[in-house]
Amino acid sequence: MFVDANVIIDILNNDEVWGDWSIAKLQECSASHDLVINPIIYAELAARYATAEELDKMMEGIELEIVDLPKEAAFLAGKAFAQYRKSGGTKTNVLSDFFIGAHAKVVGVPILTRDVRRYRRYFPDVPLIAPTAQ
Question: Do 1 and 111 form a contact (C-beta atoms < 8 A)?
């Protein structure tokens, strides 16, 4: 199961609104799934750390594994981005959610996230573990 950066950041920040939800869901999901991130999520998290060693230590602490992004997922991310642009999207670079959603689709795993908007729109068949209010 992919763990989106927002869930990890909630836990690291002890977020007042989402921290408890993110901790509970991460613990619940770890009982039945391997918890993974890809290089895109790793890059999103890297902004918070001075060194890769510090980030890797945090990942070990919550038993996150990093897996490579297959080229099929990169291609699918590009296709989702093209669809986004055709529908009026204004960003000019492929968004991280497209890489994460495409990767989850290609390998057939769910995503633990609380930011579901792009995943639901561009990867509707990828299972999401998310707050029910979204």
Answer: yes
